[in-house]
Amino acid sequence: MHLSQAAKKAEIIVDQVSMRFGKKGHEVTALQNVSFKIYRNEFVSLLGPSGCGKSTLLRLMADLLEPTEGQIMIQDEHPREVRLRRKFGIVFQNPTLFEWRTVKQNIELPLEVLGQKKSQYSALTEQLIEMVGLSSFKHYYPWQLSGGMQQRVAIARALSLDPPILLMDEPFSALDEFTKEKLQLELLEIKRKTNKTIVFVTHSIPEAVYLSDRIIVLSAHPGRVHSIVDNVREEGDPSHIRESERFHEMMKTVRNCFYEESGFLDGQTI
Amino acid sequence: MTGRLFKKFGQNGTFVLWAAAILLLWEAGAWFIEDIAQLTAPASKLPYIHRVLSSLVEHFPTMIKQGAVTFGNSITGFVIGSAIGFALAILMSLSRTVENTLSPYMIASQMIPIIGLAPIIYGIIHDAALSRVLMAGYVTFFPVTINALRGIKSIKQEQLELMRSYAASTWTLYLKLKLKSALPGLFAGLKLSAPLAITASIIVELMGAPDGIGVLMVSSLYYGTAQVYMFWSTVLISMAIGLLLYLIITLLERWMTPWQPEFRSKGRDET
Ligand SMILES: Nc1ncnc2c1ncn2[C@@H]1O[C@H](COP(=O)(O)OP(=O)(O)OP(=O)(O)O)[C@@H](O)[C@H]1O
Ligand SMILES: [Mg+2]
C-alpha cells in the first residue's frame, strides 16, 4: 500500500457521475458530480448516511443502472462489457437466495447460467462451501439457515465465477454483532487469499475502518464525495486491529469527516 | 418419527370425527323432516344419507361410467386451458404492451356467464365431448393466467439484478427464475379453476348432451321423487370428481414446489 498512486493501476474510474431518478420536473438527484478512482486489489468502502446514493453508485458500477451524466470505466471498458464478461460478483444487503435451491445449488447458479457442465465445477463448489464453513449444510434450503449463513452462501455464490471485482452492498448490516465480526474477519481472509478488488458499501464507521484500505466518504442530498481517507488499514493480524491505537485514531478521523469539519449534517433535517 | 406419525393420525382422526358428526347430523335432520315433521316430499329436501348411499351402490356402474366421461373431458379441457393460461402469463410477462393489450379482452371474457355460453357453444359445434373440453378450458385459463402472472411479478428486484449481473439470456432468466417463481401462483390458479372446470362440463351436459354425470342429474330430476336418491348420488359423484382433481393438483404441487412454506417440514433435499 505504500506505492505511489500513479504506479497503481486504476481498476474503476468514476468520472463526474450524476444520477437523477424520476420524470422531468419531479427529479430526485441521487448523485451529483461524483468522481473517484479505485485501484486494483484495493478494498474500498463507500461510507455515508442512508439515502446518500451508495447503492445507486454500486448499481451504476454493475451496469444495473445508466448514469444520467458522466461515465464509469472499469478496466478501461464500459461497465456493460465488464458485466457481459461476468467480471464482477455482487452481494446485496439481503442474501437474495433462490428459495427452491439448496446451499450448493445456489452457489452453483452463476456457473449453471454460464453453461458449464456439473462435472467441471463440482470440485470448485465444494471448495467454496468449505471456505464459508457450510459443509454440513450444503443440502439445506435457505429457510433452514440463519441470516448469517444465508449471507455466507451469497458471498460464496459471488465468488463462484472467481471475478476480479467484488461489489458488496451493506452485506453485513442486517446481522448481529457476533456474526458480523466473524464474517468481516472471513472477508479479510478471502481478500488476502484471492486478492480481489472489493467495493464495499456500508454506513458503519467501525466496519469501514476495520475493513478498508481506503474510505470514500459520501454526503447526502445530493450524494457527493465528501472526502477520501487514505491508508486506513494497517498490516497485521486482523483479529487484533480493533484494539490498536491506530484503529481508534482512524475512527476519529473518519468520524470527524461527518461531525466536525464542514458541518456535514447541516443540510439535513432530522 | 413416531411423533410425526401420531400427529398425522391425530389430524386424520379429527377429520374422520368431523365427517362422522356431519353425517350423523344429516341423518338426524332427515329423520326429523321425514318422520317427525312429516313434510311432503321429504327426500327432495334432505334425504336419508344411507338411502342415497345405497342408491349410489346400486347404480354404481352407470355412475362411474358417466362420471368418467365427465371427468375425462373436464380434465382434457382443464389441462389445455391451464397450458394456454400459463402461456398467456409468460407472454404477458414478456412485454407490458402485450399485457395491456390482452388483459381487457381476458377480463371481458370472464364476464360472460358460463350458463349462457354453454348452450351457445353446444349449439354451434353440436359435439358434447368437444363442448365440455372447450367450456372446461374456458373457465380454467383465466385464474391460471392471473395467478401465474402475479407470481412472476412478485420476483424481487435483487433476484433480477443478480441474473442480469450473470449476463443471463432471456431464456435462462425464464428457466432459472421466472418460471420457478410462477409455479406457486400456477398451482393457486389450478386449485381455483379445478372445480370450475368440472362445473362447466356438467353445465354443458345439462344443456342436452347425450352422456355424462350431468345427464344422469337432469334425468333423475325429471322423474321427481322416484329418482331423488339417484339425484343426490350424482351430486356426490360430482363432488368426488372435483375432490379427485383437487387432490391430484395438490400432490403435483407438493412434488413440484417443495420449497413453499406449507410443505417445508418435508422440503429437505437428500441427494
Ligand atoms: N429506482 C429509484 N427510483 C427513484 N429514486 C431512487 C431509486 N433508487 C434510489 N432512489 C433515490 O436515490 C437516493 C439514493 O438512494 P440509495 O438507495 O442509493 O441510497 P443508499 O445510500 O444506498 O441508502 P441506504 O443506506 O439506506 O441503503 C434516495 O433518495 C432514493 O430515494
Ligand atoms: Mg442502500
Sum this structure up briefly.
Chain B: One of its GO terms (biological process) is transmembrane transport. With 270 residues, chain A is an alpha/beta fold. Helix content of chain A is 34%, strand content 23%.
Largest interface: A-B, 28 and 25 residues
So what's the CATH class of the largest domain in chain A? Alpha Beta
Instruction: Quote the beta fraction of chain B.
Output: under 5%
In which order are the strands of the major sheet of chain A placed?
Answer: 5-6-7-3-8-9
Q: What share of residues are in beta strands of chain A? A: 15-25%
Oligomeric state as shown = heterodimer
- Write down the Rg of chain A: 19 Å
Major sheet size, sense and barrel closure of chain B: none
Q: What is the tally of beta strands of chain A?
A: 9
The CATH class label of the largest domain in chain B is: Mainly Alpha
Largest sheet of chain A: 6 strands, mixed
Average pLDDT taken over every residue of chain B? 88
Supply the CATH superfamily name of the largest domain in chain A. P-loop containing nucleotide triphosphate hydrolases
Q: What small-molecule ligands were found?
A: adenosine-5'-triphosphate, magnesium ion
- Which stretches of chain B are poorly predicted, pLDDT < 50 over at least 5 residues? none
Topology pattern of chain B, helix = H, strand = E:
HHHHHHHHHHH
Percent helix range of chain B: over 70%
Amount of helix of chain A: 25-40%
| Name given to the CATH architecture of the largest domain in chain B | Orthogonal Bundle
Organism (chain B): Paenibacillus prosopidis
Transmembrane segments (chain B): 75-94, 106-125, 186-209, 229-252
Domain ABC transmembrane type-1 (chain B): 67-253
Protein name (chain B): NitT/TauT family transport system permease protein
